[in-house]
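User: Second chain of the day. Same drill as before.
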Amino acid sequence: MSGAGGFSAALERGDYEVAALRLLLGAVEALREASPSAREELIALLAEPAPPPAPRTHTARRRHR
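Assistant: Same format as last time:
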């Protein structure tokens, strides 16, 4: 089973740890199969820091009673 197929099946089962590992496997497979120039671009994208989370707004809060 490919990384992508295993990812979907694990998500459907609610097995999130396995899903995360399958997602990582899919990324590694994509890097391995990519041409050298595409591989460099993929690695550069993975190395970029994640954007900061969006600020919470008043509509995102739940009311507690």
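The mean pLDDT is 84.

User: Great, on to the next one.
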